Amino acid sequence: MRLVLISPPQAVANETHLASELLDQGLARFHVRKPTWSRAEVTAYLADLPAHHYPRLVLHSHHSLAAELGLGGVHLTAASRHRGPRPTLQPGQTLSTSFHTLAEIRQHRRRYDYVFLSPIFDSLSKSDYPAAFTLTEITAALGQLRRRAGYAPQVLALGGVEAARLPAVQQAGFAGAAVLGAVWQSPDPVAAFRELQSIIG
């Protein structure tokens, strides 16, 4: 089961140091999501991370940096997905995106390495962002996807995912989970990540 960590949208104290430590602890994919930051700000942020971690970093904006710096991949927001052609990827780089309805998951045909579906539970990091689905309907929808002939995306749960909810995420049939608040809102982000990692196994 895949575990992805998303950066907080705004800077937090010691963020790049903590992110580097989490990558040292085995974090497979770190999504850098800074929606209001300039290209120069994102570049400076990346420069604070050890270059040997770059293949595991995924950018949500300023996508050209992924090719320039040899990052792990690119994530398309809903807005960037509709704005124009896909970014050019280098061999081995991943492409992911975000969906917010089961209909979008069922209807899309463009290939992604994995996709986020949200919000699965009430968000930990956003107020007034409640769960949009029941686990029963998600389980049925993911089961239909797996039985579909041809391409079916790897679907990761996003929104309110914390350690206590990971068993339900697994039982629903998700290929993994993307977390944000469960780590960054913890007084000890490294310990919080280790707990999540231990449950996924």
Description:
The protein is an alpha/beta fold and 201 residues long. The protein has a single domain (2-192), classed as TIM Barrel, CATH 3.20.20. Helix content is 36%, strand content 17%. The chain contains nine helices and eight strands. It has helices at residues 15-24, 39-47, 64-69, 78-83, 102-107, 135-147, 166-172, 181-184, 189-200, and strands spanning 2-6, 29-32, 57-59, 73-76, 94-99, 114-117, 155-158, 176-179. Strand 4 (73-76), helix 4 (78-83) and strand 5 form a beta-alpha-beta unit. The radius of gyration is 16 Å and the shape is globular. It comes from Hymenobacter arizonensis.
List the helices and strands and how they pair.
Layout: E1 2-6, H1 15-24, E2 29-32, H2 39-47, E3 57-59, H3 64-69, E4 73-76, H4 78-83, E5 94-99, H5 102-107, E6 114-117, H6 135-147, E7 155-158, H7 166-172, E8 176-179, H8 181-184, H9 189-200
Parallel strand pairs: 1-2, 1-8, 2-3, 3-4, 4-5, 5-6, 6-7, 7-8
Helix pairs in contact: 6-7
The profile of the biggest β sheet is: 8 strands, parallel, barrel
Order of helices and strands: EHEHEHEHEHEHEHEHH
User: Within the largest sheet, what's the order of strands?
Assistant: 1-2-3-4-5-6-7-8
Low-confidence stretches: none
Alpha-carbon distance between the two ends: 8 Å
Report the mean per-residue pLDDT as an integer. 93
- CATH fold category name: TIM Barrel
The tally of beta strands, per DSSP, is: 8
Counted up, domains total 1
Strand content: 15-25%
CATH level 1 name:
Alpha Beta
Which structural class do you get from the secondary structure elements? alpha/beta
Count of helices?
9
Approximately how much helix is present in the residues? 25-40%
What spatial form do the alpha-carbon principal axes imply? globular
